[in-house]
Inverse folding.
């Protein structure tokens, strides 16, 4: 609903006041496109360099004036990488953790979001205060005792240990509350009059109405988990439980990694980590920008 | 949970006894009654809906926040990982030691450097790109936005590895381009002078998109009439930016500045992957120093004190920013 609104009226404002601006616009517009394109080129240069380097031979990788396009394309970097690193395993670990974290957040954040937006309960403003305060607390503040706690609970090197600290984020609660506040009270009152319980109202009426927000939350939570680094770095010692970023960073900082050809392998690894994210982003980009904007505006 | 609330909602209507017990200060006369009764029911439901979050918050956030504070007053070390209660209370020793620790002071300075240079750059560039894309570009607007935003979604570790290669003094892209154009480039990540600016450059590249998206949303909320009126009065582009756009964007600017500052104060991945804090600690940040003290040397009490110093700095700066920006609007 709101996602379409955001893109649909966008062209309108630019076409309406066009006429007064036309004269100067004709001179300035092409220049602006050149500036924007140059900016875009600089922004995407590291990605292009990564993607092309992943397919380069050792010779091209160390060529003295750098070559952009590989003189011979090779998959050697990928096969070398897969020989040295169990990438499918790390990929699976990252995926399992991200899916679990996302499912937990979708459920728990929208539950509390609903309570804060639509249920008149005694501690409401206090709980909301807790959520707002939690938004401000940096994650690094908690990791030391969290490590001790997880060690005590025997949850280091386990999926549960990687998921639980991120299972209900304050950002998600805030996002869901902001969306649910806009649902008209009359709708819920009508359902209550008909004898519907709060869980039924939440599950059958409210959740379907906030699908765009759920989509946004899914994307952000999944991405946050996929890119998360410091906690998985601390909470895993067993390479079998490494997530992709941990495996990649460990490999990149390993002094025994073969020098020279190493850069090719690292670019191949980075490409494998970044590519799925970029593809998902390209398909769902509308929800990203929408989500950031809503969280920021309200 | 549904079994406790759903039938309750239907069954309770004729008998207000139970809901009265939960809250309801003496059923008032007439119309007030219905409201109060539903308030009692919503009270229970509200708490039930809050439970999962509150439990997770309590165990994995509130407890660690308090525990970090307690640990910062102890000599918590390797053997306390298995026996945490045996850590010895040492008062403010860790904090006193911190402010005589040259390494930590350097880390504080480096983090401040990163924030003081990085945040304004990120905000200004993000704002400029937003204005450019919002006002100057009609065609392929989405294409440009996606392009500028793409670095935000990528894994920091992966792009840090890519940047390390881009900045490599022998095989890197920038060194190669420099050599071709006939000027020599510094060994960016190997030089005490250039390592931190290089990390800042990467952070600006990666985080500009967030600011841009926020600003575009803010710009679209400014009524076109305001701009038109300014133009009719003969305002130049610069005046329009200074007197119209920036003041009207103040709430968005505030939000963007606060989240960027918090993020930058916690900077960890970039130095961890790109420089390991070097050369000679010139890119050692507070988070990286804390990680090393805590998890390489297991000086966890000491590291906890670092975490709290950083936390207090973050809180102080956030409150200060909120104050400054709010007062200016009045």
């Amino acid at each position: 609903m709101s996602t379409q609104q955001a893109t649909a009226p966008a062209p309108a404002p630019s076409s309406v006041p066009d006429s007064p601006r036309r004269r100067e616009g004709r001179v300035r517009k092409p220049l602006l496109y050149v500036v924007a394109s140059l900016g875009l080129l600089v922004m995407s240069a590291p990605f292009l360099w990564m993607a092309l380097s992943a397919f380069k031979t050792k010779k091209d990788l160390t060529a003295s004036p750098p070559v952009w396009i590989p003189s011979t394309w090779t998959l050697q970097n990928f096969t070398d990488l897969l020989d040295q690193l169990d990438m499918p395993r790390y990929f699976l670990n990252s995926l399992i953790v991200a899916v679990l974290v996302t499912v937990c957040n979708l459920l728990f954040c929208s539950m509390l979001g609903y309570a804060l937006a639509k249920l008149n309960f005694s501690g409401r403003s206090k709980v909301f205060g807790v959520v707002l305060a939690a938004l401000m607390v940096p994650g690094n503040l908690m990791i030391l005792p969290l490590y001790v706690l997880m060690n005590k609970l025997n949850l280091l090197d386990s999926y549960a240990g990687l998921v639980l600290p991120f299972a209900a984020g304050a950002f998600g609660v805030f996002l869901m509350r902001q969306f649910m506040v806009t649902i008209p009270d009359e709708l819920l009152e009508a359902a209550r009059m008909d004898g519907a319980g709060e869980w039924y109202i939440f599950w059958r009426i409210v959740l379907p109405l906030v699908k765009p927000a759920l989509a946004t939350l899914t994307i952000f939570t999944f991405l946050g988990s996929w890119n998360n680094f410091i906690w998985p770095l601390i909470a895993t010692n067993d390479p079998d439980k490494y997530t992709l970023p941990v495996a990649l960073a460990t490999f990149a900082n390993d002094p025994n990694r073969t020098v020279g050809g190493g850069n090719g392998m690292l670019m191949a690894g980075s490409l494998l980590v970044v590519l799925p994210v970029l593809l998902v982003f390209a398909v769902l980009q509308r929800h990203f920008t929408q989500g950031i904007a809503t969280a920021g505006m309200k | 949970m549904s079994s406790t609330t759903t039938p309750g909602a239907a069954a309770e209507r004729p008998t207000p006894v139970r809901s009265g017990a939960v809250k309801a200060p003496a059923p008032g006369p007439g119309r007030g009654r219905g409201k109060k009764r539903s308030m009692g029911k919503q009270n229970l439901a509200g708490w039930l809906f809050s439970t999962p979050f509150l439990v997770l918050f309590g165990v994995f956030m509130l407890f660690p926040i308090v525990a970090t504070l307690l640990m910062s007053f102890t000599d918590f070390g390797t053997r306390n990982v298995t026996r945490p209660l045996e850590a010895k209370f040492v008062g403010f020793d860790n904090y006193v030691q911190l402010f005589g620790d040259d390494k930590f002071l350097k880390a504080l300075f480096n983090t401040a450097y990163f924030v003081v240079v990085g945040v304004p750059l990120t905000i200004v560039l993000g704002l400029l790109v937003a204005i450019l894309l919002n006002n100057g570009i009609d065609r392929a607007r989405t294409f440009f936005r996606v392009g500028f935003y793409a670095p935000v979604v990528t894994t920091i570790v992966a792009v840090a590895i890519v940047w390390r290669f881009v900045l490599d003094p022998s095989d890197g892209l920038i060194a190669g381009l420099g050599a071709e154009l006939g000027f020599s480039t510094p060994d960016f990540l190997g030089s005490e002078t250039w390592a931190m600016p290089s990390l800042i450059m990467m952070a600006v590249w990666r985080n500009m998109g967030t600011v841009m998206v926020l600003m575009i949303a803010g710009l679209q909320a400014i009524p076109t009439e305001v701009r038109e009126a300014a133009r009719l009065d003969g305002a130049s582009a610069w005046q329009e930016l200074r007197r119209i756009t920036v003041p009207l964007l103040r709430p968005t600017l505030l939000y963007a500045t606060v989240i960027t500052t918090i993020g930058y104060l916690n900077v960890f991945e970039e130095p961890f992957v790109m420089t390991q804090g070097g050369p000679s600690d010139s890119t050692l940040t507070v988070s990286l120093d804390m990680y090393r003290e805590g998890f390489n040397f297991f000086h966890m009490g000491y590291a906890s004190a670092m975490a709290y110093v950083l936390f207090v700095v973050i809180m102080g700066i956030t409150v200060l920013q909120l104050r400054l920006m709010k007062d200016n609007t009045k």
